[in-house]
From TrEMBL:
InterPro entries linked: EXOC6PINT-1/Sec15/Tip20_C_dom2 (IPR042044), RINT1_Tip20 (IPR007528)
Protein name: RAD50-interacting protein 1
Pfam families: RINT1_TIP1
GO CC terms in record: Dsl1/NZR complex
Length: 839
């Protein structure tokens, strides 16, 4: 041996010792190992000598047979020459020769010898292959626990033998037909089954090597604390783990490298997408522990408490991820396997444990669909932790769980049933529209929820909160359509039913007839007004609708529903120009996979323009609620107006406006017919003011003022004759009503109503209370001119409407028509007498 060869051998020995005997304790085992290796070497040498002797004997026998066949062939050639030569002679017939029988016997004998030679040649090939296989198997088995590298080398050689003989044709059957005899890896095979025997041998050695290395790795991991908190203080355990990890990695690499050759033989030891073998076995201990927690009678396995068993998985990851990120990743980087993130790959190996637990509890989920919502939330949190803390980038656990159509359908149905049940329980209560909070607990212009409104909003928001984490937009839309919209529709229908029932009862029956017709002698309190309770009922509907409408408006602008609306708009754009995205609910239960892909892949950036910003998922619902709210407000207005006008019946029938001396009593400020109405109306308005927002209250006041204005002008001022005293009494009444409608108790914009209500009635009172002539004492806020100064011009038949309007405008009258002004002047009995006298 040269110096260079000696150096190379020394270096190889040094690398071997560094790789397998890194500690002092392991070095002490070298003598034992060397002794074992020497015994192994001696045994192998003996086996090799025996095999060589058997092979030499077979070779000698084959040579003898070959020589015999050669001699037979030469004799046959000579005979053939004689036969051909004889047949060529014209005097001798080709079919008539004396030695024909001997020739045929020779041919038969030669054929038999040739067949024997072929069988012996192939038998030698079988024996050679069998010897190689047996030697490789024996070498691999002897090296399983003591020499991992030797075992891998023997395993690699065994695969090479299989690959070399699988397609060479050298192992063809010795006899025609298919072999029917059985063979096993433990007994010599029949020749026709040798290829199958080699395959079984490869598979057997693979299994034995895999189990041995896995067992060694498991034992070392157990010493390190796996899969609980890792303790790397034991150098021996760490070294044993490293060695077993290296063995498994080498075994995996050899198998993957030979996957094509193995596939040609119909043998699949490792799938193409199989995880690295060391990590696969490391996950086995985790799987065992999780089965203990997930499939036993422990509290951690409760189906309705997924957070308990998911926390076990996260706790396990907290313990072992540092070990994976540092030590295991370093070992993996030193292997010949394709590089990957050991932490992420291991999490992928653990997640099937979670999937199996979900499958195990599937029947319980279907029985109680609302548990699915809880599981979905916990899975979302679990996956969020995996991705944000451990940088997991594999398949979505939640997405795979919700891909089960039966599970999702059970959840949707449970959400629908629970929402309907909650709503029906509330609507069935004695007074579902009773307001929840006192007036002083909320702002003046804040919606005050009723019990039903609060329940509707809570139910809808609870459903949304449960499905907000669902990754599929189509599934979120299906939950929205099935479990949320029906609740809002039920609310609208129930309020419409209440309105219809209220409308069937004539508003004339709201007020007791005795109260209506009686002339009250003292102010009526709010609690004595029958109208207040009816207004409270009506405004509770209004507040209910308003509260839900404001909530729906907030929902429409929230990120969850904005994203869903964007997806719906994108789908509508894809379907065609005439498709209205607000019609998305039509046939949503029949959406296809194409619809799902389109909805789930939509982003705001994928929309062609900003038209989608003009609407929203809840747009039509909000519109319906606004229309219903306005309908209730109109009913409130009609109820107040009809009640007030009904109480003015006596005032309308008053017929002493033309009497002299009316209103002269200083103690009588307003007409006695109004003495009961004004305080009650004041209390009703004060109560109403707390029941509706300021804008609605202002609108109601304007409508009431317009109704009163028309009533006072048409049914009182233009329907009776007046003296100046009667006109002044009418002016006092109009002033009192104006003061009431525009009093400072009204909020916000309604404070400005004082000088804008009853405009025509006040102008009527100016004409009716105007001084007859300059000798008559002027009334408060009287006109600058007396009636005799401008009245004749107004009633003159020669005056046009334009001239009359100019005169009236100078007098501060701009709302009355010329015809109405003429009628009012004509209704002044004292002026009629005056003009009659003049005439």
């Amino acid at each position: 041996m040269t110096n260079i060869e000696a150096d190379v051998a020394l270096e190889a020995a040094r690398r071997f010792l560094d790789g397998h005997f890194a500690t002092l304790e392991s070095l002490e085992l070298i003598d034992d190992l060397l002794s074992g290796e020497e015994n192994t070497h001696a045994q192998l040498q003996s086996d090799l000598e025996n095999a060589s002797r058997a092979t030499e004997a077979l070779r000698d026998e084959a040579v003898d047979i070959s020589q015999s066949l050669r001699d037979k062939a030469l004799a046959l050639i000579d005979l053939h020459s004689e036969v051909v030569g004889a047949a060529a002679d014209d005097n001798v017939s080709a079919w008539q020769f004396r030695d024909g029988t001997e020739t045929m016997d020779l041919v038969a004998t030669l054929a038999t010898e040739l067949q024997s030679y072929d069988k012996l040649s192939r038998a030698k090939t079988y024996i050679d292959a069998l010897l190689e296989v047996e030697q490789a198997k024996q070498s691999a088995r002897q090296s399983l626990s003591t020499n991992p590298q030797g075992m891998l080398s023997a395993y690699s050689k065994l695969i090479a033998i299989l690959a070399a003989h699988s397609n060479s044709g050298s192992l063809a059957p010795l006899t025609s037909g298919s072999a029917t005899s059985d063979c096993s890896a433990d007994s010599p095979p029949q020749p026709s089954n040798l290829l199958e025997y080699i395959k079984q041998s490869v598979q057997e050695i693979w299994s034995e090597a895999n189990e041995a290395a896995a067992s060694a790795q498991s034992e070392s991991l157990t010493k390190l604390g796996w899969p609980a908190k890792m303790d790397l203080s034991s150098a021996a355990a760490v070294g044993a783990f490293d060695a077993s990890f290296s063995t498994l990695a080498g075994l995996d690499h050899i198998t993957r490298a030979a996957s094509d050759a193995l596939a040609r033989c119909g043998l699949t030891l490792r799938a193409d997408d199989a995880p690295p073998l060391p990590l696969e076995h490391m996950a086995r201990a985790v799987d065992i522990r999780m089965r203990y927690h997930f499939e036993s009678a422990r509290t951690t396995s409760r189906a309705d408490k997924p957070e308990w068993w998911l926390s076990q998985v996260l706790g396990m990851l907290r313990n072992i991820v540092p070990f994976l990120e540092s030590h295991v990743q370093r070992l993996f980087n030193g292997t010949t396997l394709p590089q990957l993130d050991a932490r992420n790959e291991f999490i992928c190996l653990v997640l099937p444990v979670v999937q199996r637990k979900l499958t195990h509890d599937r029947s319980e989920y279907i029985r109680d669909g609302l548990v699915i919502a809880h599981v979905v939330h916990e899975l979302a949190d679990f996956e969020h932790t995996l991705r944000d803390v451990y940088f997991y980038d594999g398949p979505s656990v939640l997405g795979q769980f919700l891909a089960d159509s039966a599970l999702f359908s059970a959840w949707v149905e449970a959400e629908r049933a629970n929402a309907v049940e909650s709503y029906m329980q509330t609507i069935a209560e004695s007074n579902p529209f009773e307001l929840v909070y006192e007036d002083d607990m909320l702002g003046a212009d804040d919606a005050k929820p009723s019990r039903l409104a609060e329940k509707v909003v809570l139910v809808i928001e609870d459903v949304a909160e449960r499905y907000a984490v669902v990754p599929s937009c189509m599934q979120r839309l299906q939950l929205l359509s099935t479990a949320q919209f029906p609740i809002l529709i039920a609310l609208v229908e129930d309020i419409e039913g209440e309105i219809d029932e209220f409308s069937r009862i004539s508003l004339a029956f709201i007020r007791d007839a005795g109260i209506t017709n009686a002339i009250a002698t003292k102010p009526t309190t709010a609690t004595q007004s029958p109208l207040v309770s009816q207004l409270a009922r009506l405004t509770s509907w209004y507040q209910t609708i308003w509260y839900v409408e404001e909530a729906a408006d907030d929902w429409n602008n929230s990120a969850t529903y904005v994203d869903m609306w964007a997806a719906v708009c994108q789908r509508a754009a894809a379907l065609g120009r005439n498709t209205d995205p607000r019609d998305w609910r039509v046939n949503c239960d029949e959406w296809s996979d194409a619809d799902r892909a389109l909805l789930d892949e939509t982003t705001h950036q994928s929309l062609a323009n900003d038209d989608w910003l003009d609407g929203g998922i809840w747009e039509r619902s909000i519109g319906t609620l606004r229309e219903l709210k306005q309908r209730v407000l109109d009913i409130i207005s009609r109820a107040i107006n009809k009640d007030v006008v009904g109480q003015l019946r006596a005032y309308r029938k008053k017929n002493n406006w033309a009497a002299e001396g009316i209103g002269a009593n200083a103690d009588t400020d307003i007409s006695i017919e109004l003495s009961g109405l004004l305080p009650e109306l004041s209390s009703v308005l004060a109560a109403l003011e707390t029941m509706v927002p300021s804008l609605a209250f202002s609108l109601l006041l304007r409508q009431l003022a317009a109704e009163l204005d028309t009533f006072l002008v048409e049914r009182v001022a233009l329907a009776h004759s007046f003296s100046q005293c009667g006109g002044r009494q009418f002016a006092k009444d109009i002033g009192a009503l104006s003061q009431l409608l525009g009093s400072s108790t009204a909020r916000g914009a309604t404070k400005k109503l004082k000088h804008r209500v009853l405009l025509k009635s006040r102008e009527c009172s100016l004409i009716l209370a105007c001084s007859l002539d300059s000798t008559t004492a002027p009334a408060a806020n009287d006109m600058p001119l007396s009636l005799d100064e401008w009245g004749p011009t107004v009633i003159s038949s020669d005056a046009s409407d334009r001239e009359t309007k100019l005169v009236l405008k100078k007098l501060g009258i701009s709302n009355l028509s010329a015809k109405e002004a003429r009628s009012l002047v004509g209704l002044r009995v004292d002026f009629a007498e005056l003009t009659g006298c003049n005439t």
